[in-house]
Design a protein that fits this description.
Mean pLDDT: 83
Radius of gyration: 18 Å
Shape: flat
Helix content: 55-70%
Order of helices and strands: HHHH
Structural class: mainly alpha
Largest sheet: none
Length: about 110
């Protein structure tokens, strides 16, 4: 299956959208409880406060176009797309294990 080229551009826009939305959602707490955020998370949220609305809206518009293109191309050849959702191997039924959140959060915050 060929992955559409729009996937790369949509992926490159994700940090912009994530920072803008994170800043909007956390603004009240960030202003009143800044010390509750780690330095890294605080920097990311603060970066979101400086993203122009036009850039954010353009990214959302392109994301909608890209998603339409991706879905049309991918699902023209398959009925189900099964992909991993976490960067860790799944636990085995015979040997369940607990997973700490910190390594996953570190991976996600790259």
């Amino acid at each position: 299956m060929k992955v559409p080229d729009s996937v790369a551009l949509a992926s490159s826009l994700h940090p912009l959208v994530m920072k803008a939305e994170g800043a909007a959602n956390h603004r009240p707490w960030k202003r009143t409880r800044a010390d509750a955020y780690s330095e890294e998370v605080g920097r990311r949220l603060e970066a979101g406060f400086f993203i122009p609305a036009t850039d954010y809206i353009n990214a959302l518009q392109y994301r909608a176009f890209a998603l339409e293109e991706i879905l049309a191309e991918v699902f023209s050849t398959v009925d189900v797309l099964h992909t991993p959702v976490l960067p860790i191997p799944p636990p085995r039924w015979s040997r369940p294990r607990t997973v700490t959140v910190r390594p996953i959060c570190r991976w996600w915050s790259r």
